[in-house]
Amino acid sequence: MHNLCDTHTHTLFSRHAYSTIEECVRAAAERGLELLGATDHYSSMLYPEANGIHDLRNYQYFLNYDIWPRTWHGVRVLHGCEADIVDLEGRLFGHDVAVEHGLDGRVLSKPTTLKERVFRGCDYVVASVHNADFARGATTEQLNQLYIGALDDPKVLMLGHVGRTGLPFDVDTVLRAAKARGKLIEINEHSLMGQWSDRAMARCRQIAQRCAELGVGIAVNTDAHIATDIGRFDNAHALLEDLGFPEHLVATRSADAFMEALETAGIPYEA
Ligand SMILES: [Zn+2]
Ligand SMILES: [Zn+2]
Description:
Number of helices: 8
Radius of gyration: 18 Å
Number of domains: 1
CATH class: Alpha Beta
Shape: globular
CATH superfamily: Metal-dependent hydrolases
Helix content: 25-40%
Order of helices and strands: EHEEEEEHEHEHHEHEHH
Bound molecules: zinc ion
Low-confidence stretches: none
Strand content: 15-25%
Mean pLDDT: 95
CATH topology: TIM Barrel
C-alpha cells in the first residue's frame, strides 16, 4: 500500500499539539512523504472566547498561509484546517460569526464571516465532529444531512474520522453523497490505534469496506498531533490490506493523486 501524503495533521496552533510546521515538514521528508497537509483545528475547542465573543485575532495563524513555501525540505506543503461541524445542517464553525474588523482593527469595506475569512486562505478543509452533543437523539436522516451539508461546503474536501465519532448515520447514504460530489472519506490512523471502543473500530472497518465496494475515494491520514507521528499509517494500512482495498481509490497514494482529488472536488488550487 502506497501512501505518500499525510493530509490531516496538527501543529502547535491546535494548542494540544506539540510541533512546529517546520518540524512536521522535516518529519514528512524523513518518512519519505511527497506531500504534507497541515490542518489545525478550527473549532470552539481552541479558545474559551469562542463560546461567546469570537475574535478574528484568535485565528490569525490561518490568515498568513501565503508566506509558507509550497515546497519545503523537498515536500509539497498544503495548508488548510480541520473545521468542526456544529449543527444538524452540517454548517461549520464560525459560519454565523460576523467579522467587521481586520486584524489591525480597521473596519472592513466588505464584512464577512469568521468561517469565510479563515477558509479563504485554506487549500482545503477537513470537516469533523468533535463535540457531538448537538446531534444526540437526532434521527438517521438528520445525521446523514449533517455530513452531507458539510460535504456541500465548497472548501470541504473530506469528512474527518467519521467512524470514531460514533454517530449512527447511514454509511451508504453519506458515502454515496461524497462520491457524487467527488469528495473523500478519511481513514484515520489515530482512530485505529486501539484506544477507542470495539464499536468504533468495527465502524471504521465497515466504512472502509463500503468505500471499496461503492468506489468512494478515501484519504488515509494520521491526524498526527506531534511530528513523530507523521507518516505512520501502520493500523490503517493493515486494515486496508486486509480488505484488499483498491489502491486507485486512495487519493493520498501520491502527491499527483491528491492534487487530482482537489480538482475532482472542484476546489481551486492557487500555487
Ligand atoms: Zn486534536
Ligand atoms: Zn485532527
